[in-house]
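Problem 12. The chain below contains 174 residues. Write out its predicted structure in token notation.
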Amino acid sequence: MIKKKQLDAQIVICGRGGQGILFLTRLLDETAILLGSNVISSETHGMAMRGGSVTSHIRIGNYHSPLIPSGKGDFLLAVNESEEQFNRHLLKMDARLYINSSSRRPNTICAEKIARELGAPMAANLVLLGFASAHADFPLQHAHIHKVLEKISPSKALEMNLRAFHEGYQTAAD
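Solution.
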């Protein structure tokens, strides 16, 4: 039995079409629900094709609107590093950023490289989320996200999704 607790977090997920932004949104939404928290989310899509900007807003707690106002976001998951600049205005000054990048900046991971090495280049989103979930301040715990990931992953992708998520987590722990 999972202990129910009320969370309060505002998370921005950004990337490009085809990078699994909507899957991450669903995964985090359902994890918050599993924990007994209120959650409301919204996605915005740029170009209506693969490769356009995609941004999701997730508000966990007692919120009435799905959109995060400028300067209020607590966390940013950038599956595509170039999208960070377009979404930074949504964040608080002390917000935590988790970015898929080959740079040596704090809280970055080369999720694409790890996903390619696993033979699943489309799983960079889950590598990044695993990395974020390894940090104590991330609002949803690794074990809870893992449980939901097992539930919502398509059967043909389940094993690879779990491996990608675990690799991101392990990279942060190392």
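Discussion. The beta strands are 9-16, 39-45, 53-60, 73-78, 91-100, 108-109. Students who got a different answer should revisit the alignment rule from Section 12.3.
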